[in-house]
Amino acid sequence: MRISRKADYALRAMSYMANQPDGKRSSISEIAENEAIPRDFLAKILKELTGKGLLKSYQGVTGGYQLAKRKSEITFLQIIEAMNDKIKVSLYVDKKGAPLQLFWSELQDTLIKTFQGVTLDNSRYVLRK
Amino acid sequence: MRISRKADYALRAMSYMANQPDGKRSSISEIAENEAIPRDFLAKILKELTGKGLLKSYQGVTGGYQLAKRKSEITFLQIIEAMNDKIKVSLYVDKKGAPLQLFWSELQDTLIKTFQGVTLDNSRYVLRK
Question: N or C, fewer C-beta in 10 Å, chain B?
Answer without folding.
Answer: C
